[in-house]
Amino acid sequence: MRHIATAGLLPAVKLFDMPLNIPDNLPAAEILKQENIFVMTETRATSQDIRPLRIVILNLMPLKIATETQLLRMLSNSPLQAEVTLLSTHTYTSRNTPQEHLTTFYKTFDQIRGRRFDGLIITGAPVEQLSFEEVTYWRELETIMDWSQSHVTSTFFICWAAQAGLYHLYGIPKYPLPEKLSGIFNHRVTAPYLPIVRGFDEEFFAPHSRYTEVRRADIERIPGLEIVAESDEAGVYLIVNRSMRQIFVTGHSEYDSLTLKEEYERDLAKGLDIKMPQHYFPDDDPSHRPVVRWKSHANLLFTNWLNYYVYQQTPYNID
């Protein structure tokens, strides 16, 4: 087995067999294998002679199996081995995921609060139209975000979580939009010198699905934050903390090809007055299968975070 040296603080790692390390019987494992994505189960990982990156995912989305599969797909596209811990809230139990799945594969914060992690991902949640303080698990989420300051090397906030993180950590408010923002939007890189967008094209596509927004003027007032990418239609997209400790993404780069379609159909079934996702269905015809235009950007975004903001920054002895 060949080894490569890196500029990071972890030791040299093997060039091959560096995939995602997840529980043997997690449903996502079989899905990813069918997509020709190399997944290492716990059984095989025990034979590796490196320390894998410890990544914890706080999954706030209602359809947890779908979301965990999407995120694991993104994390798998890297030569770095990552050991993933799935986290759910104690103060609110999802009604859309089987309890057996939660019991088998998820931990609560009390079970991991004494550990340190290289990376934390906090997902979006369908609670944007509530004030932050009205969210059932808001106090628990505040505790986790505070804990991450001392126990996590870098945190990746997605959609509503990005708004929640900006609000709790920096006092940046969110604002209601006139209608739901849903679709695939073009973005431009505004800070091409930062590692998080290394290898990006000057313009790229990414999905959005939300009812609220954060605004450039509020972010620019915070010295420690920098806007890295934005869209004329969808607004600010990517914000980073200059210490490399936090990444805020206001969209859903991890979404599958049909996720927006399924959300749109669920909204219609609820009787909501909702518009069709923009720039998504060919010829704006929902009977046509959407063309994926954001996968390469999504993979590069997560790979850059794992490499430059986690692996290159984290100590080998994380404890």
C-alpha-based Rg, rounded: 19 Å
Estimate the strand proportion. Answer: 25-35%
Count of individual beta strands: 14
* Helix-strand pattern: EEEHEHEHEHEHEHEHEEHEEEHH
Shape: globular
End-to-end separation in angstroms reads: 28 Å
In the CATH scheme, what's the topology name?
Rossmann fold
Which stretches are poorly predicted, pLDDT < 50 over at least 5 residues? 1-18
Main sheet makeup: 12 strands, mixed
CATH homologous superfamily placement: Class I glutamine amidotransferase (GATase) domain
Helix content: 25-40%
Please work out how many helical segments DSSP would assign: 10
What does this structure look like?
The protein is of the alpha/beta class. It has one domain: Class I glutamine amidotransferase (GATase) domain (Rossmann fold). Helices cover 29% and strands 25% of the residues. The chain is built from ten helices and 14 strands. The chain has helices at 27-34, 42-45, 64-75, 99-105, 109-112, 138-151, 160-170, 216-220, 259-269, 295-311, and strands at 3-4, 13-14, 20-22, 39-41, 53-58, 82-87, 106-107, 117-122, 152-158, 175-189, 203-213, 225-231, 235-241, 246-249. The strands form two sheets. Strands 3, 4, 5, 6, 7, 8, 9, 10, 11, 12, 13 and 14 form a twelve-stranded mixed sheet that branches. It starts with a strand and ends in an 8-residue tail after the last helix. The model is unreliable at 1-18 (pLDDT under 50).
